[in-house]
Amino acid sequence: MENKGQVMTSRLSYAFGAFGHDMFYATLSTYFIMFVTSHLFDNGASGAKMISYITMIIMFLRFFELVIDPFIGNTIDNTSTRWGNFKPWIVGGGLISSVTIAILFTNMGGLNTSNPLLYLIIFAVLYITMDIFYSFKDVGFWSMIPALSFDSREREKTATFARVGSNIGANIVGVMVMPIVLMFSQVSNHGQGDNRGWFAFAMVVATVSFVSALIVGLGTKEKNSELRKNKEKTSFSGVIKVLTRNDQLMWLSLTYALYTSGMQITNALELYYFTYILGNAAQFSLLASINAVIGVFAVLAFPPMAQKFSRRNVFFISIGIMLIALILFLFAGNSLPMVLAAAVLFYIPQPLIFLVVLMIITDSVEYGQLKFGHRDESLTLSVRPLLDKMGGAISNGVVGLTAVWAGMTAGASASTISNHGHLVFKLMMFGVPVALILLGTLIFFKKVTLDEKEHARIVDELERTWGKTLAEDDATAEVASEQAVTVMSPIDGQLVPLASVNDENFASGKMGAGFAIKPSDGRIYAPFDGKVKATFPTRHAVGLVADNGLSVLIHIGIDTVNMRGTGFVSYVEQDQVVKQGDLLIEFWQPALEKAGYDDTVMVVVTDTAVQPVSLNENGTVTHGDPILKIES
């Protein structure tokens, strides 16, 4: 067992990794295009043409990179080094992406004007190199959480630390961008700085990004286990298959693609608003500072809001707030207080929508499992970052073209933007995002039906079909051994007949023969030697298979699936080998009592072909006491 110091070091290292990681992403998705459009080329027809070329190159390369993302994940899965699967790609990808983004924030020795064609070729090579190695780091970093701990509670804490770190990192870039640019610029250029200042800014981001990756490599430790061995390779065709056959995932993906494209367009154009509408780019730091603080509270507000209003309603409330913010932004004009109010109001719902989408995508794993009899965890969860990258590609293209059409390029200032330029800018910053967000919301309203209640029903159904489908999915489920199995009590409490429990599926024997216990404790232990063959996201049940293939389901409480994991902690993962007496799950009895649920623990043998012999039918039992004996 790790001591508290090691655990805290791991959490903080991972959180700082998220901080630097999202600093890099914010720079790439928002501020790099600002440098390209406003500082890299002269104001004129040739400059506008080069900006258009670079914008198209970025869009094409980012869409191309989406195609190879699954292969990147597959490569990481099949990596085996003394440092683990992920660290070589996190550190190596962090180094290469940091070096290349710093070079991209230069004119490459004047090639942008002396030899534009050569510049475009080198730019394309450097950009795709940077993007690919950033993707290696991105996929490796966010896939690392399951490898850091097998304790669900510790994973949640690690993820929370990381989410707070990433929120601060993404916003701190906005706080420091203009102060650093202006500090190192030789000329102010209407408060926009020059190439030297922007390169200094890129060097700071690149350095922090690499150092944070190095700290992840030094401060965290991957846990080695048999259950982490990869069994299937992920392919692009596999991702397409998951997307097309899982209708809830498909409709949610379309919703999120439209939403994130509109959201990222507005976010990316906010610095342009401060620069070319307000005429004071330095004031953008004030907005980023406010958002950095607000974002943390928004993340923490999600659980109570989802519990009170439901995730679906949180989504609609958040969209409504964003639309109000866009309308307020549209009429803010040159009023800094109104601009800040609108921009902050637009940002507050973004972490909430992100978490709603992430939770529904996670739930769609069980939806697909019930519908198709196959579980696609990694493929399903890879969809969200893929869609974020697609939204970023669309955003970069729209922002680059908007800058050209509105005249917001090198040499321009707030006083030189024409009325036509203002009109074009407002259309692209507010009109296009409103249309995309509304269309995505309509699709969500009409087509996305997977909510908490539906997911609870699906999990309940999966529990009932678990024992029946296990033999089809896993040959080890077949009882092929003559060895007898004794099922011990998994918990302390009062033994009662299964037929007496207040759940028809268990009492009638539909789920299989077995026994029930009114618990006096909240800890579930393995009733025999075997393997964990089914875990549930709600953590209220676990399916085990004994060494001879006997399958047993342990179910905590009646209708506790509706608690969606609240009050439950799982200490095991699917395919983990366990010994009799190993701690499997811990639950807090007062939480079940407060929610009004019966906490009776049911233990059933899901192999209907076998007839267990009762060794103990009533009375007080302690975990480890023999209850059933099953002869093959």
Write the layout of secondary structure elements.
Layout (H helix, E strand, L loop, with lengths): L3 H36 L5 H33 L9 H18 L6 H4 L1 H27 L2 H4 L3 H33 L10 H25 L16 H10 L1 H31 L6 H26 L1 H20 L5 H12 L1 H24 L4 H5 L1 H24 L12 H29 L4 H22 L11 E4 L4 E4 L7 H4 L5 E7 L3 E3 L4 E6 L5 E6 L4 E6 L11 E3 L6 E2 L4 E5 L1 H7 L5 E5 L7 E2 L4 E3 L4 E5 L2
Antiparallel strand pairs: 1-14, 2-3, 2-13, 3-11, 4-10, 5-6, 5-9, 6-7, 7-11, 8-10, 12-14
Helix pairs in contact: 1-7, 1-8, 1-10, 1-16, 2-5, 2-16, 3-5, 3-8, 7-8, 7-11, 9-10, 10-14, 10-16, 10-17, 11-12, 11-13, 11-14, 12-13, 12-14, 12-17, 14-18, 16-17
Basic shape: elongated
Tell me the helix content.
55-70%
Largest sheet: 8 strands, antiparallel
Query: Structural class, from helix and strand content?
Result: alpha+beta
